Amino acid sequence: SPQPLLGRSALITGASSGIGAATAELLAARGARVALLARRKDRLDELTGRITAAGGTALAVPVDVTDGSALGAAVSQVAEVFGGVDLVVANAGIMLPAPIEEQRADQWQTQIDLNVTAAVHTVGAVTPLLVAAAAGGRTADLFTTSSIAAQNIFPTFAVYSATKAFITHLSRHLRAELGGKDVRVSAIEPGIVGTELQSHVTDQGARDWLAGAAASVEFLTPQDVAEVIAFAAALPRRVNLQQVTIMPTRQA
Ligand code: NDP
């Protein structure tokens, strides 16, 4: 079927740019209704317009996911409008590498607040909806956007990489916990993807390293990652891609 995700109700965090935006657009093209969560309302409205114009269904929900009660309200709103949620992409994240000796406590905290705390709160808020969807006989998916940084070692990326190791390990545990309830859990671990992620990096050494990588490696596109998520979501209910590493061909 050209629309294998017809009837699915998806919620995507970090949907205003990069991997989240591309995933929302592709899931919608494959038939899912998509709820778009992020802070930048203008971006969400623009994406909603594009999805709607292409014949899809999208709901823009501007929210700061680090605000636990606002996140809870946003998830409830989506569940009410869509009559449930059966596909979640917990994707919002930020990468702020810097030498540990520089004591960038503000940047450590920003990464932990978003990549770890908000991700756990997202998972907590959506899990009852996913369990209910699966109990009702629907396919239910929880995708997390981890990173190869969860597995590989990159000097100056220690805190970011640790947040992603947390996400991969969290996901493996949740898969074991929720699989018995027919909820699939998948950790997506991309190598470098060309998105706005790199634009937030302030550390000059890391900026130089990324520029060097850009000169020798054709980065993945956000659509490349979206294809993997859409593929996994369309697999038969008994099949769970637990962990997917997706690399630019030229990235070592
Ligand atoms: P982007 O910067 O393009 O996307 C990040 C998204 O997160 C944006 O939509 C942003 O929206 C959202 N976001 C940030 N802060 C908040 C917040 N407080 N509340 C709600 N939403 C927020 O980067 P990517 O698409 O690359 O990143 C997506 C995920 O992929 C991240 O978890 C990242 O770690 C991971 N990843 C990225 C790789 C890469 O090379 N690009 C490689 C491996 C993993 P807004 O600012 O509007 O709130």
From TrEMBL:
Molecular function as annotated in GO: oxidoreductase activity
PROSITE patterns from the UniProt entry: ADH_SHORT (PS00061)
InterPro entries in alphabetical order: KR_dom, NAD(P)-bd_dom_sf, Sc_DH/Rdtase_CS, SDR_fam
Leading EC class: oxidoreductase
Signal peptide: none
Ketoreductase domain location: 8-195
Cited SMART domains: PKS_KR
Keyword list, A-Z: Oxidoreductase
Enzyme Commission numbers on file: 1.-.-.-
Recorded superkingdom: Bacteria
Family per similarity comment: Belongs to the short-chain dehydrogenases/reductases (SDR) family.
Name of the molecule in the record: SDR family oxidoreductase
